[in-house]
Amino acid sequence: MTGKYSKDFMLKAYENMLRIREFEQTAINCSLKGMTFGNLHPCVYQEAIPAGAVLALEEQDYVTASHRGHGSSIAKGARTDEMMAELFGKKTGCCGGKGGSLHVTDVSKGVLGANGIVAAGIPLAGGSALASKIRGTDEVTIAFFGDGASNAGVFHETMNMAAAWKLPLVFVCENNSWAVSVRIDRVTNTDNIAVRAKGYDIPGNSVDGNDIIAVYEAVKEAVDFARAGNGPSLIECTTYRVLAHNVGDPMKYRTQKEIDDAKYWQTKRDPLILFRDYMAKHKVPQKDVETVDAAIHEEIKKAVEFASASAYPDADTLTTDVYASDNERCVAR
Amino acid sequence: MSRISMSNAIRDAICEEMRHDNNVFIMGEDVGVSGGAFGCSKDLMQEFGEFRVLDTPISEMAFTGMGVGAAMRGMRPVVEIMFDDFLGVCLDPIMNQAAKIRYMTGGQANVPVVFRLPMGCGRRNAAQHSQCLEALLTHIPGLKVVAPSTPWEAKGLLKTAIRDDSPVAYFEHKLLYAGKGEVPEEDDLLVPFGQAAVKRQGKDITLISWSRQLLFCEDAAVELTKEGIDAEVLDLRSLVPLDWDAIHASVSKTHHVVIVHEGVKRSGFGAELSAQISEELFDDLDAPVERVASLNIVAPYTGPLEDLYFPNSQRIAEAAKRVLSQ
Amino acid sequence: MVTKIVMPQLGTTMTEGTVQRWHKAVGDPVRKGEVLLDISTDKYAAEIESEADGVLRATLIQEGDEVPVLAVLGFIADDMSEDIGEATPAPRAEAASTSAAEPAAEVKQAAPVASESEPGCVKASPLARKTAKEMGIDIALVPSNRARIKQADVIRYGESLRQQSAVALAAVQSDEGDVEPLTPMRKVIGARMTQSIVTAPQVTEMREVNAGKLIALRGRINARNPDGKVSYGDILAKMVATALVNRPAMNASMTEVGIRRGRGVHIGLAVALTDGLVVPVIRDVERKGIRQIAKESAALVEKARENSLTAVDTEGATFTISNLGGYGVDGFTPIVNLPECGILGLGRIVRKPVVDENDQVVAGDVMTLSLTFDHRVVDGATAAMLLALIAGYVEDPEHMLL
Lengths: 333, 326, 402
Hints:
The structure holds three protein chains of three kinds.
Chain A: H1 7-32, H2 48-55, E1 62-64, H3 70-76, H4 80-88, H5 121-135, E2 141-146, H6 153-165, E3 169-175, E4 178-179, E5 182-183, H7 197-200, E6 204-208, H8 212-227, E7 233-238, H9 256-268, H10 271-281, H11 286-309, H12 327-332
Parallel strand pairs in A: 1-2, 2-3, 3-7, 6-7
Antiparallel strand pairs in A: 4-5
Helix pairs in contact in A: 1-2, 1-3, 1-10, 1-11, 2-3, 2-8, 4-11, 5-6
Chain B: E1 2-5, H1 6-20, E2 24-28, H2 44-48, E3 53-55, H3 60-72, E4 76-80, H4 87-104, E5 114-119, H5 134-138, E6 144-146, H6 151-163, E7 168-173, E8 180-183, E9 197-200, E10 205-209, H7 212-225, E11 231-235, E12 238-240, H8 244-254, E13 257-264, H9 269-280, E14 290-294, H10 303-309, H11 313-325
Parallel strand pairs in B: 2-3, 2-4, 4-5, 5-7, 6-7, 10-11, 10-13, 13-14
Antiparallel strand pairs in B: 1-8, 6-12, 9-11
Helix pairs in contact in B: 1-6, 3-4, 7-11
Chain C: E1 3-6, E2 16-22, E3 29-30, E4 35-40, E5 45-49, E6 54-59, E7 66-68, E8 72-77, H1 126-135, H2 151-174, H3 184-199, E9 202-210, H4 212-224, H5 232-246, E10 252-254, E11 259-261, E12 267-269, E13 271-273, E14 276-278, E15 281-282, H6 290-305, H7 311-314, E16 319-323, E17 342-355, E18 361-374, H8 380-395
Parallel strand pairs in C: 12-16, 16-17
Antiparallel strand pairs in C: 1-8, 2-4, 2-7, 3-6, 4-5, 6-8, 9-18, 10-11, 12-15, 13-14, 17-18
Helix pairs in contact in C: 1-2, 5-6, 5-8
């Protein structure tokens, strides 16, 4: 960690991370109480990656995410109250209750959506980058995906095209070692994911995913590189999936060693705790940190109240927005 | 009016729309330098450059997905998937992304992409290059599905498709590319979706079809007049949305229906039409609705076998006579 | 067992019937032969009787509703728990047995061909069924050389039914014989009689009179004048004229502006011709003797038979006498010859038992007088008084001199 960041910057980074943490933890609790529908894939203990990466983006930039996508969406600016309402399936949700956790989107904030199909967000991000390229505008798009997705064909296809056409795209791989029950090293021949960049002759970097500053710096470099027209980079952020794949996954597949590893990451590598130490070391006043704590806590509390008080969508929204035009006729037959 | 081929009509549509709107671009394998495997983007790269006429690598899944992503950003990509058979390698961006994004995002994002899908058999291209898969995509809510039978409709429907804010699956038939037809020289020739066309008026029986089989229906209708049978030929042109009023009007007039398509019979779009007709026009039917379609087999390579596989005007006429005699 | 109640075909042209009134309510016990409901068509009204014992299990059609012939109106079952299958309401109910008299088969979904009217047993296209229903035809009766009945088969069958009933009707009508056109005289008589009946309310009073003295009078007159014989009609004309002089109320005509009193008594004598009748008039009968009356009447009758009567001969009567005695008629109801207000019908003189002045039953000669009057001009009492006067003259001609 370097010491060249302002207090405001550090507090901003911390706030982004904390917001994700509080949101995810609260969402888990709500889910366990039956207040949400379907499956939730929280990114607790992995927050430094989305928070740090998005810190490197400008407002006009874009992101796509995986199924574990609340983090980058929140970091990019999607409102937590609307997102909580979306998880609750309410009409006030960011997608009107019709998308849910897997598809949280806020186009106005450049959040092109989480995705229920592994790796599907990667070409979508590539398309966003292609649009910038054709238009000649300077937006950069980040594709967030996991180690599992880096084995999908479409990851390679997109990387190849992005590289060939020098698209303003940054590949950010959240390597938490786990694709549901399958540990990455059992199905991948390389030591890390970043090395795949060599296959496409683009910059590849592997950083500590729980060190927000490290993530920020690596991604910033890649974003600047892309914005300058030099094409894509692959930034691998190494972390660990402390929790289960989704809320309710009993995780019977982990060995004792793996359980111990998770424990270690949870207690010793918690990105929030690590960054609090960092901030303390860099003289950020404790009360400023506590102010952020209180504000975030309040924000998330209000988000739950908002979501709880909101109504479910009206029945007549069932068939709306399937098509952009002539919707009724195209739905009827 | 000028007589042009369907492939040129398609090309003209793309060209006009690209000139009209900078957000329109075309991508796919061989679309750029080569002008398209079927000549549908001939010389466009010269005018619009290599990024708006984008030669892609053989990466259907990703480049189709990129088309979708670009569309979310407000571009209007025309994605050429060289053979509709290749839907097998790129169905996810079409089915799970493009078709669903508007609904999943609660109406936030549109995906104004056109997937151009050459289809059809009769070219002895064998099993993996001869399918007609429009029924597959009509089964995916969120997609509009159209299929022209003549050059002027090919042009008008494609322009409408490009301007439509929904994702559109545009099925062109490989054996129709070369055929020429009169195309009006209007500035903005648009054929609306959801509007069928009566290509031949008749009173005894309705032949419903689209794409190349529609032309066979017209031939069959001529043959049928020799036996005193006056067939009405209805070109749907648009499967989603469907022009139900046209179907209703024709069936209530003739009371006899044969549906013809080149996709295989089982679970073809004819099955859907037949079900709708029997549900809603039951009392108007004087005989069961028949379908003439390709057999439920894998398309064969050798000519003599392939010719037995898909419908032709003789089989259509026989079906019409059979329905009328029942 | 379930029995269908169906709208019967009460005539070949009947296509629909209306349920007028149910005599039984659902759940009521019914016996075979009991009236279940009244139905009507534009031509017929009828009661529908039960064909079976049991209970009225269900009614499908409400009072006032019109349904096609053979539509199912309801069901009789052994009891209320018996299953009547999927009895759909109103005209959608399938046409049942071909005649109301046939007991219908049980309504069960798995019914075999025995239930010939179940939809599953007759193969017909939906359009054919719809057309059959619209035409009021039982689809089961439609012949077809195809595996499935088509609309064209139904239309053809319907057409043949229409032709059959047209042929049947023509046969019925042609039995009535040739039609001869009306002669002008028949037309006139028809028109005048109709006009009279329609315009004038008429009443006929009848009275039997003892004709003994009349017979004797005629005999004496004719004994003296063998050449100029007088008839009963001639004598009665004089008697009527005399009566009208004494009681002139009925020597009048009805006009639009009021009752016109005749100055003289001009009597029309109805003369039967071969195919009609004419009514020549004897004028001023009250001033003529019977012999003159007889001469004139004979001349007029001659003229009538020669068809040479003129308007002068036939206009201007104030009263008419119609004599059907020669045909054996007793009393009858002659129709007033407008614009006159009265007409006297003469019946035959017939030998009958009568009661004499000693209360003895003896053989006597009886004649019936029938006086029809126009009730707009006079009332029954006035007419009765005239009749009494005439009757008195007949029974005692001397009274004419008094």
